[in-house]
Amino acid sequence: MKEELLHFLWQNKTLAKQALVLSNGEETTIINAGTLNHNAGPDFFNAKIKIGKITLVGNIEIHLRASDWKKHQHQKNRNYDNVILHVVYENDETIFDLHNKPLLTLELKKYISPKLLQRYQILFENKNKIPCEAIFSLPEKIKISHWLQRLAIERLEQKCKRIEQLFDSTNQNWEQTFYILTAKYFGQKINDEPFERLAKNVELKILAKHKNKLSQIEALILGTAGFLETKFNDEYLKFLQQEFLHLKKKYDLKTIEKSVWKFARTRPANFPTVRLLQFASLIYQSQHLFSKILEADTIEKLIKLYQLSQSHIINMAELSDKKINNQKSELGMQAIETIIINTVSPILFLYGKMNDSEIHCDRSIAFLEKLSPEKNGIVSFFNALKIETKNAAQTQALLQLKNEYCNNKKCLSCAFGNHILCS
Hints:
- This protein is of the alpha/beta class.
- It contains 19 helices and seven strands.
- Strands 1, 2, 3, 4, 5, 6 and 7 form a seven-stranded mixed sheet that branches.
- Helix 4 runs antiparallel to helix 19 (415-422), helix 6 runs antiparallel to helix 15 and helix 15 (333-354) packs antiparallel against helix 16 (358-370).
- The longest helix is centred in the middle third of the chain and has 29 residues, at 141-169.
- It is elongated.
């Protein structure tokens, strides 16, 4: 057992409903469990308890055993002067305060059911895909809904932290930040790093100077990515090659090694060369893309920004040096939704937070709620446990649940874990 279980029980309303008897025989009632302290000092601040007719306000210290008080040297620390109650699992020793008076102590052993302890042991000692898999049960729908909403926001906030670092690295330039972020997710997981390098090597302000010529944008993107250094037979690829030689010298561009791009275990439609051309089309078609995203007030307007029109066909087999048919530069709906989930929604949320714009924070979440639920192994696993998902906000919540709670066994901080322990 860990102390965090006792923290959980102290905060839980189950204890507050019981008639609790202190080690000295006096009855006590929890009026307010107080605020959990994450720093040095007593475990809970500003708690309120009632002993007989006397109400005490102060701090609570929690240990597995009463003797841990001396083991942790609290008797020598003035920060523990205002502890009004020592809550322990086992009262193995009488503890005295600085005035040599016995410290009021509540032993929890007799108030914790064997059923709860058994479930706690199952949660923290099994090696299942999620800790509660063997004893999983669902709380009422309203609790599920609230928990998924909170998890979806947590995931957005987590993504915002990474985007904020990128934002600072661009001297707080929203357009450049969004450009790099978009490039990263065009590469998907397999090619996100070279795509990010590409966007940093050829900045958005360079591409903006060639906004009226798709061929020059394609030359800049493909050339910087290292795909225009081969001898071509195709006339258009030769033309792009010549364009890039001029632009590379003009802007002193550094190319990326072609070898860093991964084609293995990738469908032809997701080959890096295909994604690079789609990225070039998006840059050409959507000048000041971030500004347009800030203005988009419906999911339909947002999706329209990513619906690309194909103006010409490129010899993909020669460009990629792979057996591949010519691919369209349009983005499929699944690709568009993935980009919105991973770039648009989190950067809108961050923009709203940094500019006190509630409308953009709300819109960020509303867009996720309008998108189809994602399909992946984690979502399928939870769906099999009867957790329904109707939109991308809820599937993002399940990813947060698995990665941050289940994987780290934070069952005591999880609504499902709480329900399983206390039901």
